[in-house]
Design a protein that fits this description.
With 398 residues, the protein is α+β, with helices and mostly antiparallel strands. It has 3 domains: 210 residues, Up-down Bundle (Methane Monooxygenase Hydroxylase, Chain G, domain 1), CATH 1.20.58; 64 residues, Alpha-Beta Plaits (2-Layer Sandwich); 73 residues, Regulator of K+ conductance, C-terminal domain (Alpha-Beta Plaits, 2-Layer Sandwich), CATH 3.30.70.1450. It is 53% helix and 12% strand. The chain has 12 helices and 8 strands. A 4-stranded antiparallel beta sheet has the order 1-4-2-3, with helices on one face. Strands 5-8-6-7 form a 4-stranded antiparallel beta sheet, with helices on both faces. A hairpin with a 2-residue loop joins strand 2 and strand 3. The relative contact order is 0.12.
């Protein structure tokens, strides 16, 4: 039976955006776990995303009744094209697994050094999460972790919604900051992870250096996309300019990666694994290009159709801007001291201090009064974010 759900440009754009982002998350999870089922799900989601975009283009053309309408919808279609690029790049990442290119097994754990790491954990008997919905658990704001998928037996539920209920024996596929792992494992009744064995520092090999570059490209590409959507939402040319800088940096990183991979060839047992690294770098570059494409609209001063902001605000991850007020809990404390991500579930994309922008601030970055913080995360996290950056209300004199 045909899908009879009502469709409009805002909903289709939001669903396409959300689908492209879950595709990227699943693609990297497939890579980390070398899991063909996850990789094949990315291919299926690509078809779903293509359907959303096809309907969006069709409705947009029908909606254009004048040259002014056509110009306004042109920006919407431009953003839709960038979303399609992001989804296509995710599919390319997944094909590293399905085509058996792979990556060197020895460097797979190094992907844990990404800003947001991926992991799996099984829900134990008697855990506090059993029988509770994701809406009730609020895992992003309680632990900083997002659930990418839930496996029950042999079945996967991808991008689980707020009404999804966790059961004993479920396997949770999650993504988030490293410091959130222990919090999530405690909630599902899993024992703490053992401390990693201490190893003496050894000189980096050529392959190690290539992987470091790849991880930086992955982190920066995700930040670039988040900043691009934020620049569209807030009509902020300064954020768009930062995306341009990131894209230029990515070009240099890709050149450097290709050079390191060539130097690493003598170390590699399987040359196809080095081809896998190059394909990952190329996919990251496509994501950068998509982010840059979106910000060109802002830099050109084009007035965007209101549906763009509505779609971004309606998606699973929302962008937020907040000002650090004097006397708030955030003043003078670092992001790590605030446990920012695990307390709010929000990822800080950039901080504006005066005329200077600091993108992707590190955990030791201290916030100051007057800082403008741009972050993305669950809508539920905005209230927690405001609690950190707002000064306590004064108690009326009695």
């Amino acid at each position: 039976m045909a899908d009879e759900r009502p469709r409009n440009v805002k909903d289709l754009l939001a669903e396409a955006k959300d689908t492209s982002e879950i595709m990227v998350d699943l693609a990297y999870a497939a890579l980390y776990f070398n899991d063909e089922d996850l990789a094949e799900e990315v291919d299926r989601l690509e078809q779903v995303m293509d359907g959303y975009l096809r309907d969006l283009r069709w409705i947009s053309m029908l909606a254009a009744r004048s040259p002014e309408d056509a110009e306004a919808m042109g920006g919407v279609l431009h953003i839709a094209g960038a979303i399609e690029q992001i989804g296509d790049a995710a599919a390319d990442i997944a094909r590293v697994v399905t085509t058996s290119l792979g990556i060197p097994e020895a460097i797979r754990p190094d992907l844990r050094h990404a800003d947001e790491i991926v992991g799996r954990v099984k829900v134990r008997e008697g855990a506090e999460v059993v029988g509770r919905s994701l809406r009730d658990l609020m895992l992003p704001t309680e632990t900083g972790m997002w659930l990418i998928a839930v496996r029950r037996g042999e079945e996967w539920e991808y991008d689980p919604g707020p009404d999804s209920v966790i059961s004993e024996g479920d396997v949770l596929l999650y993504q988030g900051p490293e410091e959130g792992i222990a919090l999530l494992r405690a909630k599902v009744g899993a024992p703490p992870l053992p401390e990693p064995p201490h190893t003496d520092t050894v000189p980096l090999s050529e392959l190690d250096r290539a992987v470091d570059i790849l991880v930086e490209m992955k982190n920066s590409a995700e930040v670039a996309v988040g900043m691009a959507y934020s620049s569209l939402l807030f009509a902020e040319p300064a954020l768009a300019a930062e995306v341009t800088k990131l894209e230029a940096r990515s070009d240099a990183l890709q050149d450097e990666l290709e050079s390191w991979v060539l130097r690493a060839a003598p170390e590699a047992r399987n040359p196809d694994e080095l081809r896998g690294l190059i394909r990952l770098a190329y996919a990251s570059e496509i994501i950068f290009d998509a982010a840059r494409s979106m910000t060109q609209l802002v830099e050109a001063g084009q007035e965007l159709h209101p549906v763009v902001a509505e779609a971004i605000q309606a998606s699973d991850e929302v962008a937020a801007e907040s000002i650090v007020e004097a006397g708030s809990p955030a003043v003078g404390r670092t992001l790590k001291e605030l446990s920012f991500e695990t307390e709010t579930g929000m990822l800080v994309l950039a901080v504006q201090r005066g005329r200077r922008w600091i993108y992707r601030p590190r955990p030791r970055f201290p916030l100051e009064s007057g800082d403008r913080v741009i972050s993305i995360g669950p809508e539920d996290g905005i209230a927690e974010l405001e609690r950190l950056v707002r000064a306590p209300a004064e108690t009326p004199a009695g």
